[in-house]
Amino acid sequence: MDLSVTLKGQCRDLTLKNPVLTASGTFGSGLEFAPYGDLASLGGIVVKGLSLKPRQGNPRPRIVETTAGMLNAVGLQNDGVEAFLNFKLPHLPWRETAIVANLYATSPEEFRELAIRLNGEPGIAALEVNVSCPNVAAGGALFGQDPKLAHAVTRAVREGAPDKHVMVKLSPNVTDIALMARSVEDAGADSVSCINTLLGMAVDLPRRRPALANIVGGLSGPAIKPVALRCVWQVARAVRIPVVGLGGIITADDALEFLLVGASAIQVGTANFLRPDAAFALVAELPAACERAGAASPRELTGALVTD
Amino acid sequence: MSTPSSSLLTVLDLVPFGQTGPEHRFFALRLSRPDWPDWNRWRPGQFVMVRPLSFGLEIPWARPFGICHMTARHLICFFQVHGRGTQRMAKLAPGDEVRVWGPLGNGFAMEEDTPTLLLAGGMGIVPFVGYVNRHPQPWNLTMLFGHREPLGCYPVDSINERIPVDTLREPESGDLDDFIFTLQERIRDNAEQHGLVLACGPRPFLLTVQRLAATFGARAQLSLENRMACGVGACLGCVTRTTAAWPVAATRETPVQVCTQGPVFWASQVEL
Fold first, then answer.
1. In angstroms, rounded to a whole number, what is the distance separating the alpha carbons of residues B18 and B81?
2. Do B234 and A83 count as a contact with CB atoms less than 8 A apart?
3. Which one of A51, A52, A268, A275 would you mutate to disrupt binding with B, by most B Cβ within 10 Å of its Cβ?
4. Among chain A residues, CA nearest to B63
5. Under a CB-based contact definition with an 8 Å cutoff, are residues B17 and B81 in contact?
6. pLDDT for residue A247
7. Is the pLDDT confidence value at B251 over 70?
8. Average pLDDT in the A209-229 region?
9. Per-residue confidence band for A251, with pLDDT thresholds at 50, 70 and 90
């Protein structure tokens, strides 16, 4: 079965050998999962968010397990873009699978600088712009909750990286996610990925304290799948650019649900913590799942939801 | 060091330790041996992530357990019922399936001819079972074991048959100062012999060992037990800060993952 998909962008297309990417922040640089499967078998790897300079991240506890999900407030800890390019990227199979750099910055100017830095890197297939992280004080969700700011950030990345496919990751923590999607489409985004985590919190009952040091964090995992499906469905109807769906995808059937509501590709996130070979297993299961759904390819299923 | 792998293992048995009955809280979980290519190269102090299929989607994370022992026939973990994951694990039955990945982390230093003091606090005794069993010259090992529950709750029998073990039960000794004094004497003696001190246990216990090791100039390693989701270095939940003595320049500016850079660290190189 031909599993390949092409995300047709306004400026640059992104062709994937299959529609399964790994979600940023759940797959490290990718190398962490190399013992558990063939990285080259994936459609793509969205690496842990990169910033211009190293970031310490938030204090611990940073993660909490919840019913059918987890909360994280890692705070975008990373060693910086140069460390990634020098020490990690050369070891990734970037000729065989799409490496997507997830970007975080605190201003449109900084985003532009990151984009310029990555534009000439042949190992990077696309940039995913993080305008939706709920765990950082500066930037983060603020960019993703204001259509004008999201537009400005997207425009800055678009101008800084004219040779790269630009994907913008949307936040569900907004009143109208379709409005946000149109805003970044107008700014030149080639695709959108949705959704990032939902803002949540947990309580350590015996200590009568928040379970996270940051008090609030981002909820992910199977618990958010219905919200994510709704968001993908709304966004896919609002924009012409491709949508990449994520949020609680564990099985190939989950992935197919996202395709039906309008996604052209999907990202596997928290499932990577349930078992380290989750994304590889999903790729392997995809052809049979498509056949069960009566489809000759994943492409056939995109937007094929019957609502009447 | 072995390359980690993931596989589905079968529960062989679940043996309660200590008091039996519905309230028992300590178990040895014996699993079929992982079908990992180089399983026999594991090092004591390494750990595995264990996730019973019965967790379903309700309990997402696997649980990390120090490897108690791994042989050609089986993998043994030892756990204390603590939260909803271990409560569910206490209901495992022979034939049940669990997903296990490992061996993970780096393990304790093992120097055959060096006098080595094992300091175990409570469940911190678990990795030392494997350590004692795999050490080629166990006559160089001694152990100090501090615990709260009755001795029968812990897998101490398999150790004290091979090496001298001094046990201190907190409610019986009654005086924390006594315990710390004993700890101090043992670490000082070990440092004078240019020995090795290895510690595993609760954070306050490790902090004390770290302080005493610095005071007497002892070479000490600590095994950290931070909360983790993945065990492979991706979730960044288990990180710890390092000191100026940390040797890897590239990671001096950011905290390091306990699961992949540890769980065993030289005491001088981490901030607890």
1. 13
2. no
3. A275
4. A274
5. no
6. 98
7. no
8. 97
9. very high
Quick: pLDDT tens for A90-134.
999 999 999 999 999 999 999 999 999 999 999 999 999 998 777
pLDDT of residue B158: 85
Residues of B in contact with A51 (CB under 8 A): none
Q: Is A285 on the interface with B (CB under 8 A)?
A: no
Per the listing, tokens 């100026």 go with B244
Chain B nearest-CA distance from A293, in A, is 23
Distance, CA of B145 to CA of B130 (rounded, Å): 15
pLDDT for position A137: 67
Cβ contact, residue pair A274, B254, below 8 Å: no
Question: Could you give the residue numbers annotated as active site of A?
Answer: 133
pLDDT of residue B22: 58
CB contact under 8 A, B230 and A272: yes
Are A250 and B57 within 8 A, CB to CB? yes
B6-23, pLDDT tens digit by residue? Answer: 999 999 999 999 876 556
DSSP A6-41: EE--SS--EEESSSEEEPTTSSTTSGGGGGGS-GGG
- B3 to chain A: closest CA residue: A35
DSSP B110: -
Q: Do A58 and A75 contact (CB within 8 A), yes or no? A: yes
**Residue A21 is encoded by which pair of tokens?**
């990417």
Judge whether B60 is closer than 8 Å to chain A, CB to CB: yes
Q: What are the φ and ψ backbone dihedral angles of B235, each rounded to 5 degrees?
A: -80, -20
Beta bridge partners of A167: A128, A191
Mutate to test the interface with A, among B87, B100, B254, B272 (most CBs of A within 10 A): B254
Distance CA A147, CA A144 (A): 7
Asked if the ipTM is above 0.90, the reply is yes
Distance from CA of A86 to the nearest CA of B (A): 11
Q: State whether A79 and B4 contact (CB < 8 Å).
A: no
CA A94 to chain centre: 18
* Residue type at position A155: R
Residue among B60, B230, B84, B55 nearest A221 (CA): B60
